[in-house]
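Sequence, please.
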């Protein structure tokens, strides 16, 4: 073959290779930027449960939000999560007995317990891995949801590239003791001797019943909340009025679901003692906690964090943040998710 023919064939092969490469890049770019926005019911634990999947790029890690409350479904806060959807595919889940899922079954919802809801969460993680083509996902638990998510990670660490807790639960006894101390210190500071005597007379709340919440209400524990949490409560009240007017049926499901679930999981909450039951975590472990959280007290969270053994762990405190820091300081929270959690989770299979 003469040199002209060789050069012609070489240039043809080169052009074809460039064309194939350009097509491949174009196809991959399309996959990388493909958005997702779906709301559906999926079968979990024998009942259909509502989820919403949103993200700007399917290649991003999947972030499953396990809401607190108990029963406080997070779909009313969808706008706050929008900015998260550039770095994560965000999944909202109305747990058994909550929100849209409660709306489907109402008070006939069976087996509303920590164990069953955690197993539902495992089934959901398996579904998301299959449906979205992931080896592992990230799970984010808030308050009650941190208890559920911790149990999920304990049962199936292979499904999770990272755990993230916020408003992190530690133990019931640590919580009630710290909150009692805070109330007593406030009474001394305010010089309300009658309240001091009352508190000292009744001593610390017992760990065997759910009367702690009425106890906190009686002595106005809410006045000790972080200012951002008090503002968030006002926002929720305003939002509730708007939601009730706009979507009365879904508002009723949300409200009734919280009442229904809350009554049924009190025993699980009282029994909580994660420093004794959940120190060995076999995935990356992050807590992004409001510095001034007194609802799930940060003081107790720090002590619990010390006992955790994990392949990677990090505690990030949000300045001036309270129990709802993931909502009230969403930008700072997202920064921590994006810069701290995301790269570790990707390296671990997300």
């Amino acid at each position: 073959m003469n040199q002209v023919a060789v050069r012609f064939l070489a240039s043809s092969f080169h052009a074809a290779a460039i064309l194939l490469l350009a097509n491949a890049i174009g196809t991959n770019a399309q996959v990388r930027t493909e958005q997702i926005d779906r709301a559906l019911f999926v079968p979990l634990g024998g009942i259909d449960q509502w989820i919403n999947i949103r993200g700007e790029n399917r290649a991003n890690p999947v972030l499953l939000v396990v809401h607190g409350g108990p029963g406080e479904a997070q779909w009313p806060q969808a706008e706050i999560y929008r900015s998260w959807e550039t770095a994560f595919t965000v999944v909202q889940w109305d747990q058994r007995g909550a929100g849209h899922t409660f709306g489907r079954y109402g008070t006939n919802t069976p087996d509303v317990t920590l164990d069953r809801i955690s197993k539902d969460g495992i089934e959901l993680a398996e579904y998301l891995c299959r449906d979205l083509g992931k080896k592992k996902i990230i799970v984010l638990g808030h308050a009650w949801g941190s208890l559920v998510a911790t149990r999920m990670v304990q049962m199936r660490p292979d499904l999770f590239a990272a755990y993230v807790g916020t408003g992190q639960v530690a133990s019931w006894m640590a919580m009630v003791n710290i909150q009692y101390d805070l109330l007593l210190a406030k009474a001394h500071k305010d010089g309300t001797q009658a309240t001091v005597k009352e508190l000292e007379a009744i001593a610390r709340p017992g760990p065997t019943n759910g009367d702690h919440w009425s106890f906190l209400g009686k002595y106005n524990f809410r006045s000790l909340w972080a200012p951002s949490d008090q503002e968030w409560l006002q926002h929720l009240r305003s939002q509730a009025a708007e939601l009730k007017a706009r979507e009365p049926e879904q508002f009723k499901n949300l409200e009734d679901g919280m009442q229904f679930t809350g009554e049924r999981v009190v025993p699980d909450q009282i029994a909580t003692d994660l420093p004794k039951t959940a120190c060995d975590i076999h995935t990356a472990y992050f807590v992004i906690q409001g510095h001034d959280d007194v609802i799930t007290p940060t003081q107790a969270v720090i002590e619990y964090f010390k006992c955790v053994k994990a392949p990677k762990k990090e505690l990030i405190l949000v300045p001036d943040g309270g129990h709802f820091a993931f909502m009230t300081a969403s930008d700072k929270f997202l920064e921590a998710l994006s810069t701290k959690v995301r790269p570790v989770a990707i390296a671990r299979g997300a």
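Strands lie at 36-44, 47-55, 62-66, 89-93, 137-142, 160-166, 284-290, 313-318.
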